[in-house]
Design brief:
2 copies of one chain form a homodimer. By secondary structure, chain A is mainly alpha-helical. The first copy, chain A, has a single domain, classed as Arc Repressor Mutant, subunit A (Orthogonal Bundle). Helices cover 64% and strands 7% of the residues of chain A. The first copy, chain A, has helices at residues 10-42, 47-58, 64-71, 75-87, 109-131, 135-147, 161-165; strands at residues 62-63, 91-95, 103-107. A 3-stranded antiparallel sheet of chain A has the order 1-3-2. In chain A, a hairpin with a 7-residue loop joins strand 2 and strand 3. In chain A, helix 1 packs antiparallel against helix 5 (109-131), helix 2 (47-58) crosses helix 4 and helix 2 (47-58) crosses helix 5. The first copy, chain A, is globular and about 60 Å long. Chain A binds a DNA duplex through helix 4.
DNA sequence: TTTTTAAGTCAGCCATGTTGACATATTTTT
DNA sequence: AAAAATATGTCAACATGGCTGACTTAAAAA
């Protein structure tokens, strides 16, 4: 029993560390999304709408298939939010030139403004968090988060200059 | 315009770094929860059930009010999953001794087994992620995630020995 | 004794995911 | 040219897990 009290008992630390991380994931994600959700609700939109606006803004001219691959939801689910966003003039749709079956999506000015405002809230939270820790901690955060991803998720991520730098 | 191409332009890096973090948060949380959801579905349970089982397991004898404070949902929402878990003998309920109005919750053996199995999946993902990075990266991850939390979330978190160590 | 608190219940609504079946236009293959 | 595959969209139905509002019961506190 005595060894349970030594400061570096590996098994105990590991178990607690892993549980602590699980809880951080739950609480941090919840707090991370809460503020943005509030602003979205004031525009009669939900988190699903923000995701679409975010990734269309990030990938102007993306087609529906590729957007579905990023979001990993069914086209019926996407259809609901996407038609809403098109009706309310957040997103513009135009026929593909090389492949006329495709609908290429991009943000309208209204969509760009909303995307900027909502994402700003989330950027601000990360900016504040990063400000309170060391740059070393930030690269550690990014490394761990990257290591949490499924292999199939990696190609969906745009690598930042920062990540490439190290 | 030339300064936009210098390798360490701070504004550009910051913007990209923050967007990259937002995307990591989205993708990592999604991949993190997906496996456990699959196992839960095979028991006819959802993510909400796991949360209840997890936090009851973590706080044996917790009363309903305190559990609601952790989960941050309405009692009607909790009621739905909790009665399910009690009916299916995952959670045991007993009257409080000092305050007889309270219902103190704890896991049955069946509940403990399920909690262990489902949480194991999530622990394993973190364990694998941590194995692929440095201990420094792990503490960085934890520091950033802690800094992401709302002030009101902090008291809900159990601090690990590790966190206290540094 | 009155009021507050802890817990539970009923009823209905909303957002966002799912499946299955099918339609239409266009591109690709044979 | 005909057939098959692809990109997109649509209708209908369902599940999960949030929400609000209204109301009850039992016990504790004032």
């Amino acid at each position: 029993m005595a060894d349970l009290k030594t400061p570096h008992h590996p098994l105990f630390l590991r178990e607690e560390e892993l549980r602590y991380s699980i809880e951080l994931m739950f609480f941090a994600y919840r707090d991370f999304t809460a503020e943005a959700d509030t602003m979205l609700a004031s525009c009669d939109l939900g988190r699903a709408h923000h995701r679409v606006i975010y990734f269309v803004g990030r990938n102007p001219g993306i087609n529906v298939s590729d957007l579905l691959a990023i979001l990993n939801i069914t086209k019926q689910s996407l259809s609901r939010v996407l038609s809403h966003l098109i009706t309310d003039d957040y997103i513009h749709q135009e026929q593909g030139t090389t492949d006329k079956r495709q609908r290429l999506l991009s943000l309208t000015d209204k969509g760009k403004t909303l995307e900027h405002d909502v994402t700003m809230i989330q950027r601000r939270r990360f900016a504040q968090a990063f400000k309170s820790v060391s740059t070393n901690d930030v690269t550690g955060f990014i490394s761990v988060m990257e290591a949490m991803l499924d292999d199939k998720t990696l190609p969906l991520l745009r690598r930042t200059p920062m990540t490439r730098m190290k």
